[in-house]
Amino acid sequence: MRYIKQALLARIAARLASGLGRPKVSSKDLVRAEFRTSTQRMGLAYTDRIRDIFRLRWLRVVHTDRH
Over the chain, what is the mean pLDDT? Predict the structure, then answer.
């Protein structure tokens, strides 16, 4: 019985502590955290062989003859 009370009090304390200490995320925070990955900005260069391998994954197939 004593263990159950301690576990219940610990669970309640954990819920209260988790809700009080964390600030809400604003839209400014999301904009600041978002970044575009560009290989040119990072200083990387792809060889033609790598481009040929990944080209099919990079390009999307567009079907214009759909009814």
Answer: 79
What is the residue type of 34?
A: E
Residue 43: inside a domain, yes or no?
Answer: yes
Return the closest-CA partner of residue 8 out of 61, 16, 38, 54. Answer: 16
Number of domain units in the chain? 1
Q: Which has the higher per-residue pLDDT, 16 or 62?
A: 16
Range of the domain at 15: 2-58
The Cα 16–Cα 19 span in angstroms is 5
Residues in CB range of 46: below 8 A, 6 or more apart = 39, 54
Q: For residue 29, what pLDDT band results from cuts at 50, 70 and 90?
A: confident
